[in-house]
What does this fold into?
Amino acid sequence: MKGFLGLVLLAAIWGGSFLFMKVAAGVLGPAVLIEFRVLFGALTLAAVALVLKRNLHFWRYKKHFLILGLFNSALPFMLFAYAVQTLDASMLSILNSTAPFWGVLISVFWLRVPTQKSVWLGCGFGIAGVITLVGLDSTVLDEGAWLPIIATLCATLSYAVASHYTKTAPKMSAFNHAHGNLWGSALLVLPFIWFMPIREMPDTTEISAVVGLGVLCTGVAYILYFKLVEDLGAASALSVTFLIPVFGILWGHLFLQEQIGANTILGSILVLLGVSLVTGLQEKVFPAKAIKES
It folds into this structure.
């Protein structure tokens, strides 16, 4: 029960990240918003590291942290911050769930890993879900939002690249991977502030959104996630993927008055069903052996 509540809390926090970005991106611009996000997240983890007496050794592993920071935070966060200026927060939260599909394609076409038929079926459901989500939404078509949609899918591709990269990365704790990745991304995003400066001075609401995005949705969320991985295992912690869109849609509807159409519900179901098949989560939750013995 404790683990389940932790997953729900984490999904609520990560689902809120799209809400916070929607509130602040238009005023701050993508570069300034994400620089504050990763910086506040890094400072939060630095405070925890100080309490736990964990040494990061950033300069010893600077190349690793810069690579990880690029693909795991800097690039995807910037792309999301760009896309959220056009797309609804709820749509972004659903498209965010497509990262496992990219992971499969990388495994098959780059790493030449054999893949089960159920995984390909899951990819099919995922593609159908994305098409349903954006292809049946006249608002998206009218606003010409295809470039932001492509940017969002590139962001989830970046997550998949980062996931595969960490498998061959230097051995260290998951906490240090998260901590160093944020400092690396802060260095990488910083120069872009000169090309994409702040647009206008933020008000109290927008400042609160930035702080919430950095401290809560990045720093605290990372701590909670790695605690869940430690307590439940990586496979079970992965189920948070299913819950994030639920909260992304809920927060968008409650606080931004975003409409929930039939295509949103159907597209969400197809994407999450696809994620279930791709990750094999349904077999972990309902193993075939257990079914046969029941």
Remarks:
- Residues 284-294 have pLDDT under 50 and may be disordered.
